[in-house]
Design the sequence.
């Protein structure tokens, strides 16, 4: 009787274990199905996300292509490099049409978006007809007709142009809404899949424990019957199968994480495209204002050539001021983009700041007290003109923050930094140049955006918002960093950290663009010097020749390097003035060719932009940026002739 009771209890435990395993298997199967359903829903949401990304990116691309085409047409009607600008306009406009057709194929399954894209295609055709009229008028030489028509089309707030941009914005807005919804769904289903995975993990642990229990039961039932052992084997196989399914689910989650990283990268690219659009708009606005001053001043001066000289000079001075501002903006943009070449020299920051004090006193006004605290003795290797410009910009910003009255302190000091102590700077020795004011200070929000291009807290017309961006680009380009320490109502300290250098000699100098150099730098009488000018632009070539003749030189002009080499076969020259970038043989290549035969020849490079790869070819020669005044040209020519005389004297 007792034996039967024990067997009955054992059978009960065995039945309970079998029932528990069955229930666990059913629960596991159900949860696996739920995970599979969640993954399918998540994949569908990810597909909608990718489609929304593609549509949004293509819309931004169409908008940017249209903007580039209209910008090229603007240069075309202004008679700026007609052939290149016209080709760019036509090519970009056709490319925009191709992109619109791609957009039509991309949204063909969405009736609403498809209708909007159809409207975009219609507006694109209408806008193209309008712009074609302006291009035709400009190419046929109808006076200012092309320019006037383009100006009317550009400034109009109604018509196909504004409607086209508005419709593109509407398409992008709709896709962003779909993107947000899809991202929310993706996050929801991913979270649910994560929870189910956690549950599966715990369930796997419980099943493992159950398998151990069943193993014990199987050992105890080894003498009972073969059927019990087979059921235990079956249950172990089921556990192994479920474990494999769990591993596959984990692998799917890893794949999902990689897809999300790709999606985030695409989103960052879209944000970059939006930032480029904002930057382009700001540049166009500022340059249009400056061109309006230049064109208007020259036109008014031309109309009053027979009138009082004072009125003519007034309008010419206004035009010169506009051109100067445009050149300054170009240099700031190149510096911010890290595309303007730096011409570094070995500089003692303390000496540079001391020499800058008089200029700051005159520039900032009598109500601003400028204090200089020069303690550093380490040299730095930077472009001194860029550094002076950066310090001047910081001082002017400080004056504006103090509303024209207060104290500005410029301090230099030697400092040793640890790894990552300031920004991303590596450990080492640095020279700190700090400009401090006693102004209103910055809020945390303003500090975070201080280095953004075209961000400014000044009133409209009081600043471009490129000052701190230029300083940031200069510091990074020089291997340093910029830091801001500010408190509202206390003041602001902007510090430049530039690396210490052991360089002894600077190899390239560049005279100022809008002003003469110091007499000690460019002294010497070189009247009657024979100069060969190599410039591919006929208008720049003509203006430069006239300026050199006014300066009592004997210039001869060439349009390219081949003509220059031929000119040297017939006569000798004291100096060659060459553009850097020219069709065929570049300026540096021409100079290398001439220097092999005429090592004593003076060289002056003239450039509006120097790209990467040309810097080594320019070392050891004078360089002048476009645009420049006659005074700046005089200083640069004198410096180049002086530099050419030094080796001769040494010999």
Sequence:
């Amino acid at each position: 009787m007792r034996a039967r009771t024990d067997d009955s209890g054992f059978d009960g435990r065995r039945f309970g274990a079998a029932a528990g395993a069955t229930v666990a298997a059913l629960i596991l199967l159900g949860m696996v199905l739920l995970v599979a359903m969640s993954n399918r829903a998540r994949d569908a949401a990810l597909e909608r996300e990718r489609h929304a990304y593609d549509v949004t990116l293509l819309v931004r691309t169409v908008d940017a292509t249209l903007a580039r085409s209209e910008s090229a047409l603007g240069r075309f009607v202004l008679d700026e490099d007609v052939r290149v600008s016209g080709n760019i306009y036509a090519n970009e406009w056709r490319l925009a049409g191709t992109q619109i057709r791609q957009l039509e194929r991309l949204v063909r399954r969405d009736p609403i978006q498809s209708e909007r894209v159809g409207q975009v295609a219609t507006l694109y055709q209408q806008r193209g007809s309008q712009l074609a009229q302006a291009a035709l008028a400009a190419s046929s030489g109808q006076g200012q007709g092309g320019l006037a028509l383009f100006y009317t089309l550009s400034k109009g707030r109604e018509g196909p142009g504004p409607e086209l941009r508005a419709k593109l914005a509407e398409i992008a807005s709709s896709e962003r809404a779909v993107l947000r919804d899809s991202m929310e769904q993706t996050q929801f289903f991913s979270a649910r899949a994560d929870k189910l995975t956690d549950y599966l993990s715990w369930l796997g642990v419980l099943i493992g424990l159950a398998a151990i229990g069943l193993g014990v039961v199987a050992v105890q039932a080894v003498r009972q019957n073969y059927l019990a052992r087979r059921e235990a084997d079956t249950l172990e196989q089921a556990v192994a199968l479920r474990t494999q399914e769990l591993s596959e689910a984990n692998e799917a989650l890893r794949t999902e994480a990689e897809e999300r990283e790709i999606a985030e990268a695409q989103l960052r690219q879209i944000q970059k495209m939006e930032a480029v659009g904002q930057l382009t708009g700001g540049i166009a606005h500022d340059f249009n204002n400056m061109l309006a001053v230049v064109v208007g001043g020259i036109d008014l001066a031309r109309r009053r050539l027979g009138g009082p000289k004072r009125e003519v000079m007034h309008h010419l001075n206004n035009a010169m001021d506009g051109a100067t501002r445009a050149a300054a903006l170009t240099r700031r943009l190149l510096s911010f983009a890290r595309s303007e070449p730096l011409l570094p020299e070995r500089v003692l920051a303390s000496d540079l700041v001391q020499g800058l004090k008089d200029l700051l006193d005159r520039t900032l006004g009598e109500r601003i007290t400028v204090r200089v605290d020069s303690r550093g003795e380490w040299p730095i290797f930077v472009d001194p003109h860029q550094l002076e410009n950066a310090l001047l910009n910081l001082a002017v910003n400080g004056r504006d923050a103090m509303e024209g009255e207060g104290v500005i302190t410029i301090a230099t000091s030697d400092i040793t930094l640890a790894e990552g102590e300031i920004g991303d700077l590596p450990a080492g020795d640095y020279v700190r140049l700090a400009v401090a004011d006693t102004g209103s200070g910055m809020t945390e929000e303003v500090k975070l955006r201080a280095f953004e291009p075209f961000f400014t807290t000044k009133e409209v017309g009081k600043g471009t918002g490129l000052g701190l961006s230029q300083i940031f680009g200069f510091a990074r380009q020089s291997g340093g960093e910029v830091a801001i320490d500010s408190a509202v109502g206390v003041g602001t300290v902007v510090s430049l950290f530039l690396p210490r250098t052991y360089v002894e000699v600077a190899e390239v100098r560049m005279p100022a663009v809008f002003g003469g150099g110091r007499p000690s730098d460019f002294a010497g009488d070189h009247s009657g010097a024979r100069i060969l000018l190599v410039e591919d632009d006929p208008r720049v070539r003509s203006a430069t020749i006239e300026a050199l003749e006014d300066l009592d030189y004997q210039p001869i002009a060439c349009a390219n390097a081949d003509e220059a080499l031929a000119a040297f076969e017939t006569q000798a020259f004291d100096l060659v003035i060459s553009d850097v970038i020219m069709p065929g043989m570049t300026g540096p290549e021409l100079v290398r060719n001439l220097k092999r035969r005429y090592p004593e020849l003076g060289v002056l490079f003239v450039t509006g932009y120097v790209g990467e790869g040309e810097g080594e070819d320019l070392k050891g020669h004078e360089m002048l940026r476009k645009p420049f005044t006659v005074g700046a040209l005089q200083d640069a020519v004198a410096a180049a002739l002086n530099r050419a005389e030094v080796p001769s004297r040494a010999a």
About this structure: Residues 226-303 form the longest helix (78 residues). The two ends are 128 Å apart (CA to CA). The longest strand covers residues 406-417. Confidence is low (pLDDT under 50) at residues 1-5, 506-523, 610-614.
